[in-house]
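From the methods appendix. Each design record in this collection lists the tokenized structure first, followed by the designed amino acid sequence. Records were kept in a plain field format so they could be parsed without special tools. The example shown here is representative of the layout used throughout.

RECORD:
FOLD TOKENS (279 positions):
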């Protein structure tokens, strides 16, 4: 059978092992109970929320999430979010900054029309080494790196033309490194090269600045060195360094250590209330 592009989350996860599916069900039930009574509103922080994909069967959920969040606060671009963290005035409310990691095709086909209609800015962190590529379901890179559990489908990445469409719609393109390698596995020179070379390729190809970097995988002390890599990003002339550590950012927070909350577009309101109520 000729592989075809993955268009739904169901296709993306079809080969997920039964044990993992069972664990996910138990975890979801626990979160549903823990979310009772949780309140997200009334805070003075910026939550940097991020996704990896918005497939066809996740679009309605993504719309509902944006509507839920818009009732709690305002959406900001990555540029305005960094400026607020650095500014003299304290945060006066609740803000959300939306991001997308990995540069998957579904982030353009699924998320962009919804973001544009709702006038929500977002930053898309792309991997120049994978722009325009398609990975087969049995490709070890697809499974181990991107968690792809498809069958007879491909994992498709956005093209440079897709990136141009994002820019035309008012979105921001950031770097997710040159090859999506864990920075902690590299010596300082190679880690800096992953940042600097990806930035240069994005800027050269798209003719626009690339000021924001997101660490692949994102776990501090495991996937990147929190004492070294934010400084390397600063040396590469980025304006921010995004991590995968959950939590809010408050006034005076370091743009070179952005905490972010990973979400799935198909999640319900109770999951958002649980994760975004955690400090």
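DESIGN:
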């Amino acid at each position: 059978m000729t592989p075809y592009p993955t268009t739904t989350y169901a296709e993306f996860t079809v080969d997920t092992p039964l044990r993992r599916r069972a664990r996910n069900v138990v975890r979801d039930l626990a979160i549903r109970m823990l979310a009772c009574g949780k309140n997200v509103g009334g805070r003075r922080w910026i939550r940097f929320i991020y996704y990896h994909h918005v497939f066809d069967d996740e679009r309605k959920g993504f719309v509902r999430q944006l509507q839920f969040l818009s009732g709690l606060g305002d959406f900001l671009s990555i540029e305005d979010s960094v400026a607020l963290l650095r500014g003299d005035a304290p945060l006066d409310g609740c803000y959300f900054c939306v991001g997308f990691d990995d540069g998957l095709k579904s982030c353009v086909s699924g998320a962009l029309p919804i973001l544009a209609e709702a006038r929500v800015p977002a930053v898309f962190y792309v991997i120049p080494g994978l722009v325009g590529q398609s990975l087969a379901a049995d490709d070890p890179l697809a499974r181990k790196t991107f968690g792809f559990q498809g069958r007879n489908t491909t994992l498709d990445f956005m093209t440079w033309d897709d990136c141009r469409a994002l820019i035309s719609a008012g979105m921001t393109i950031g770097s997710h490194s040159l090859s999506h390698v864990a920075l902690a596995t590299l010596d300082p020179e190679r880690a800096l090269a992953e940042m600097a070379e990806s930035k240069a390729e994005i800027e050269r190809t798209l003719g626009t600045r690339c000021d924001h970097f997101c660490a692949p995988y994102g776990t501090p002390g495991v996937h990147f060195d929190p004492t070294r890599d934010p400084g390397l990003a600063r040396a590469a002339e980025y304006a921010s360094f995004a991590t995968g550590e959950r939590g809010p950012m408050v006034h005076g927070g370091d743009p070179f250590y952005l905490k972010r909350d990973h979400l799935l577009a198909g999640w319900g309101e109770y999951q958002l209330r649980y994760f975004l109520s955690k400090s």
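APPENDIX NOTE: Residues 188-206 form the longest helix (19 residues).
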